[in-house]
Amino acid sequence: MNLLAKPLRHLTPSEFRSFIRRSVPEGQFLDYKSNYYGNSDEEKVQLLKHVCGFANGGGGLLIFGVDEIDERPSSVPGVPNDPTLAQRLALLVRDCIEPTIPTVEFRYIAYGKVQVFLLSVGYSPEAPHLVTFGRHQRYYLRRGTSTFPMTNYELRYALFHTNASRLSTDLGLPPQAKPINIEFLSKLYNSLSKGNAALAQSEILDYIRTINEQLNTRESTIDAVVLTSEGLLETSDVLKSQALKLAKANTYLNALTREAATVLSTLGLLRGYLSDLKALGDSVPPDLIRIRHKSDRSYKEVLKALENLLEFLSSGERPNPSLQRTRFARR
């Protein structure tokens, strides 16, 4: 099966196993990574480069936890489970790639006794997209099995293609559609010729609703067409801006609502751990855990970090940046 043709949430472990066993090679829309990227700025840029390259090239899929030889999967060691990884990656991609990529999905999926992490980038009518991480600002494009900075010609072509798609949308058409809908115009012309203005108005409203339903992304300026109290259609740059902001607010509100139960449960667990650790007092050796896991926090650092985090969750103030650690995905 084609993994790109199916939303990640509908993908089953058996379908993924079948895909790996077919030894599908890396290509324009597929890349294997053996492990997560690290937390350095350089590695974050590498991740953003791959996501941006896929978005500017029609979409693609990154699979973490798969080794490859000659661009074909050779083994599946899997990756550790990180319950916060998808949320952190979503924030990184949202904040460091402009404009916002409409469809980016994340998911763990089982493969035997291990699991892999999938990052899917959908087709974007908003391309070209730009990586903006600190002083690093560059357009990228996936070509074959590699990702490169876009050439001037590629950038000009992408901008022309996007402007043409937006013109079609302004005419009331979904992306990649013909510039004129002859069937709709014919029905409208005939209704007006027969003096049936009410039917013509009904056909226009039905057409606008149909176009809205056909759009691949809900964050579209076509939603800015409104029917006034006087029975007239109205649209403007102000309404388009309002529609886009409202759609984005709904997108993030829905995501936060889904995470609310997890956050509340985690908050209770953190309070319990903090209480248990405080009860241990000075009996905890300073280097406990760090003897084998040198990147972990010490006892006193854990206490401070937990107190900081609980204070942040209760008050809304940012925790001390020095106590925050983030890990992203790497080859």
3D architecture notes:
The chain is an alpha+beta fold and 331 residues long. The strands form four sheets. Strands 1-2-7-6 form a four-stranded mixed sheet. Strand 6 and strand 7 form a beta hairpin. Helix 5 packs antiparallel against helix 6 and helix 7 packs antiparallel against helix 8. The longest helix is centred in the last third of the chain and has 44 residues. The two termini are 25 Å apart.
Layout of strands and helices, then pairs:
Layout: H1 13-21, E1 30-33, H2 41-56, E2 60-64, E3 67-69, E4 72-75, H3 85-96, E5 97-98, E6 104-111, E7 114-121, E8 130-133, E9 136-143, E10 146-149, H4 152-170, H5 182-193, H6 197-214, E11 226-227, E12 233-234, H7 237-280, H8 299-315
Parallel strand pairs: 1-2
Antiparallel strand pairs: 2-7, 3-4, 5-8, 6-7, 8-9, 9-10, 11-12
Helix content, binned percent: 40-55%
CATH class descriptor of the largest domain: Alpha Beta
Number of domains: 3
How far is it from the N-terminal to the C-terminal residue, by CA? 25 Å
Tally the beta strands.
Answer: 12
**Discrete helix count:** 8
Helix-strand sequence: HEHEEEHEEEEEEHHHEEHH
CATH topology of the largest domain: Methyltransferase, Cobalt-precorrin-4 Transmethylase, Domain 2
Q: What is the spatial order of strands in the main beta sheet?
A: 1-2-7-6
Biggest sheet features: 4 strands, mixed
Which class best fits the helix and strand makeup?
Answer: alpha+beta
Cα-atom radius of gyration? 25 Å
Shape: globular
Shape-level CATH architecture of the largest domain: 2-Layer Sandwich
CATH homologous superfamily caption of the largest domain: Schlafen, AAA domain
Low-confidence stretches: 164-180, 321-331
Percent strand equals 15-25%
Average pLDDT figure: 77
